[in-house]
Give the backbone structure.
Amino acid sequence: MKATIGLEIHVHLLTDSKLFCSCRTSLMGKEPNENTCPICLGFPGSKPKANKRAIDHGIVLAKALSCSLVPEIRFSRKNYFYPDMPKNFQITQYEVPLAMNGYVMLGNRKIRIRRVHLEEDPAKLIHVGGDITTARYNHIDYNRAGIPLVEIVTEPDLEDTKEARLFLEKLSVILDHLGVYDPTTEGAIRVDANVSIDGGQRVEVKNITGFRNVEKALNYEVVRQKSMANMGIDVSRETRHFDAESGTTSSLRKKETEDDYGYIIEPDLVKIKLHSEWVDKLTESMPELPDHRIERFIEQYSIGRFQAGIIVNTGLQLSLFYEECCNLYKDPKIVVNWIVTYLLKSLNYERLNIKESKVKPETFVELLKLIDEGVISERTAKELIKEYTVSGESPRKIVKEKNLSLMSEDELHKVVSEVIEENPKAVNDYQSGHVKAAEYLIGQVLRKTRARAAVDTVRKLITDMMESKPR
């Protein structure tokens, strides 16, 4: 049985004010229902006015997704009764969206984009004593009402649940590079996932946050629908809710059709012409997109595609960090290896991204230069990076304060002599042809020196001493 998956992705656009009024979009420190006005509360007689910045972001995103822009856009009223919409309708785009017929390349596969349109966000419902299906009652916070959203609707081109997650991850990197959303805000991306089995009835799972949750919700639905098909039970066309804690979906309501919403053109908003001068100016100022950046990194810095992909797809800030490091350090290959292999590992362990951390290009490069200068060993640097990732302090300062610099040749010679004297069996094994015995002795030296010695230097000293030592 084959799953067919399509996604409707709602993205909070990064603007100072809401889509149709001057209320701020930043809700930090706001009391519930404080950040509102007659327009976003839907008072009778209040008149909306479209936010040009939101339209700018929508145009840029549509171009990045290879969509065709519509020359003249209109807004519509989507009529439905729900507590989070005080007007009993949502201002969105239906008959005339912002753009249509785009695509995103996912490896060698083209995932088609059906449409991109703008709309206002509803209010936030706070479920008390349960979830959306079991709560004893709900609070409503209208601070979020009217925040600009862009909705990206894919064709049902996604073939499995993992591919859906990978698509969302790639889309989020495109959004990050464009600078049209803030990934750190709550609910910056919400997903409605549509799934059917073997051309059967389509089920929609609403308002999923988190890409892994999207994958989990789809996994559950695929298994549920396949099980129903195997038992000869018809799958109903419906809208379902995903519970992240249990990893299950539950029925909310029978799925509406577009006709149920009674769309009409919004009479309080004028037509907006996307004239060529406006679009061309935005297109010319568009930043470098992820796929192009990966190709440039491969060519400019002679690094592998895998490493370039990790740097770019981790996010714009890491891409900028890498390039700044390359401007300060001689070898881009060494930089990318240390970022991908060691820095990201430490950041992930601390649950930090590069922007949240205290890591800076200048101090990170300082760590690499300490290795080049022979001040510390690579082994010491691999341990030091863990502390550095948390503190952001100068690696040179940490090395000095903790006495982590490499031992002098005389000091190291003395330690190697002690290890050889303390381990006669390993020495005899080596002299009898068991060359791997040297690795044991190297480990003992590194333990005694607390890794304040270069492995290659230790290996040479040990082998020279054992080969000259009488049997």
Notes: The first strand starts at residue 3 and ends at 12.
